[in-house]
């Protein structure tokens, strides 16, 4: 069984709810808290690149949490707030043992979430090209 000392950071999982549409027909989504658990988080080296003439960086990490009924409902559509930063879940969370004790997921920050991309453009741009 994983040692309790490794799970020493709080991870707050959030899910986006569909709260209707704005005046331009764009989906309004509000992130609400789903569950908060103790976690073991390991940040890995990120990468930087030049996109549209500006430096952009992103970071990746691995998050492990204890198996629970609430944790089994976490999907790649959710996100997690840990160490004060918002991280996107990449791929489906997996059980790393056959005893239902630990769930592991890959995280990434510094990139947009699919539904948030529409907010990056003005309504005129969105209606002309969307």
TrEMBL record:
Region of interest: Disordered: 1-21
Signal peptide (from-to): none
Q: Which Pfam families match?
A: Phage_HCP
Organism, by scientific name, is Paralimibaculum aggregatum
- Coiled-coil ranges from the UniProt annotation: none
Q: What is this protein called?
A: Head-tail adaptor protein
